[in-house]
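hey so u asked for the seq, here:
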Amino acid sequence: MRFEVTRAERAVRELDWATEAESTQVAPAQGPMSAREIRTAVQVAGVTMMSTFSRGDEWYAVLVRPDGTLSLHRLGPLAAITDRIRAAQADLSVAARLRPEAPFYRAVRASLRQRLDDLEKDLLSPVFEHGLGQTPLVVVPTPTLMMVPWGMLPSRRGRSTTVARSATMWARRHTHLSGTPTVWASAGPDVPLADSEVSTVASTWRAGQAVSAEQSTAADLVAAFVAYDLVHVAAHGEHHAQNPLFSSLRLGDGPVFAHEIEGHRLRASHVVLSACESGRISVRRGEEALGMTASLLAMGVPTVVAAGSPVPDDVAHSVMTEYHQALAAGMDSASALASVTADGDLLAAAFTCYGSKWQCSPD
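ran it, C-alpha cells below
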C-alpha cells in the first residue's frame, strides 16, 4: 500500500508540474514546488487539498490534510463518474431556464439534486473520514473534474471551496491587497439586470468604475484588465469548444475575444464573470480545459469567480452584489462566495472560485 501511495504522490506531482509548465502561458518564475513545499503551503493556509488523477479505469485522489499528512483514496469508475458529471451539467442547463411555475420545474430540480448526491458519494464520501470535514477545501482536479459543480455538492454548500489548476499555481498566486482595490465593472447587452449590477458593484468599492451596457467597449475592457485590480463583467459569453482563445464576452460594441487579452501584462488579480456562458468550461481530446475562465487563469489572473453553468439573471445579480459586499468587508474570495451561496436558490452555488485566494484589507 505504501508503494501505491508513493506512486500516486509522484503521479500527482508530475501532473501538477505538467500543468504549471505546459498549460499556462505565464512562465513559472521558480519552477514547480516540491511535495514538501506544497504540504507546507497547505499547513500555513489551514486547508485540505484534494488532488485527483486517473489510473486505468478508476479515479483516485491524494488528500493533503491541514497537518500536512497525506493519504491515497480510490474514488470510483472513471466512465461512471464522467457520465454523472455530464448528466448533472445537462440538468443544470435545463434548471436555469425553468421558472418555478413551469410544468417540469420540480422534476428537473429533483433530478439535479439526485445527480449532485451521486457525485458527492463518488467524489467526497470516500475521503470524509480522513479529515475533509469543515475545513476549507482546495480541489486540484483533472480537466474533466473541473466541470463538477463542487460548491453545489451537499457537503460543500456554505463551505469555502477553491478549484485550482495546479497545487503550485494555487500556492504561489495568493493575493492580499492593503486598502481599497481599483475596480472596473462592465455590463453587456441583453442581460436584464447588468446595468444595475455593475452600478451596485462599483458603489461597493470607493474606487469603483461602472460602465453601462450601452457604453461598454471591447477595447475598454482589455484596458481594464491591464490597469485595474478587480474586473467584474456582467455580460453574456460565447464558449468556443475547440479553441479557448476564441471564447468571448459580448459588450456594447461587440465581442472581446480571449486572444485580444492575451499578450498584455495584466494587472487584474481578480476577475468576476457573472453572466450566462461566460464561465463555462469544457474538455476536448487530450484532457485540456477550455473556455474564458481557463484562458484567464492561463494568462496569469490569480483568481476568477464564474459560474460553470447557466444561472438565472435574478439569482446572479443577487449573488454578485452580495459577493462584493463580503469582499469589501475583508473576507477572502472563496469564503465570501461560500457565505453568499449557502442558502437560497441551489443554482447560486454554480458560481465557483477558481485559482488562488484573493483578499483585501479594508482601510
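Confidence is low (pLDDT under 50) at residues 1-5, 11-28. The first strand starts at residue 48 and ends at 55.
lmk if thats what u needed
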